[in-house]
Amino acid sequence: LSLMKDFEESTRTHCNVTNLLPSISASIGEYEPQRFIWRFCFALDSILRYIIAYLQLNHVLNRHHIDFSERFTLVQITSSTFHFLELTFLLLLTYVSSKEIKWIYECSFISFRVSVWVWVGIFF
Questions:
Q1: Among positive and negative, which fits the CA dihedral 42, 46, 49, 51?
Q2: What is the pTM for the complete model shown?
């Protein structure tokens, strides 16, 4: 849509460099209906991500043929909690623009990065 509707505005740069195509952030960030289409599609994708994260936790914790220690269960629950937090903050980053409510966007970005680091640190 940005190619047809907002081509000049989405390819313009402050340093006057010629762009042949708009960047993704320029295409979905400021222009309507691109922004709403992106947010809707990302919400649909997030539903699947939450389902997969939940199923993964259930699969790991419900293996009754293996005797897990309490420490393993605690690590898995902690890891899944940070994974769910990561998904939630990523969804929040998608829906709250840095130009709309900047402090929520900044807190979401920091929280997203921290939750990713903790989740990856626990998971791997």
A1: negative
A2: 0.73
Phi then psi for residue 69, to 5 deg, are: -80, 160
Q: Which of 79, 81, 105 is nearest to 92 (CA)?
A: 105
pLDDT for 50-64, tens place per residue?
999 999 889 888 876
Helices (H), the chain: 7-11, 24-29, 34-61, 70-95, 102-123
Report the C-alpha gap between 46 and 60 in whole angstroms. Answer: 21
Question: Residue 98, Cβ neighbours under 10 Å: how many?
Answer: 13
Q: Distance (Å, rounded) from C-alpha 74 to C-alpha 122? A: 11
> Tokens 């295409």 identify what position?
27
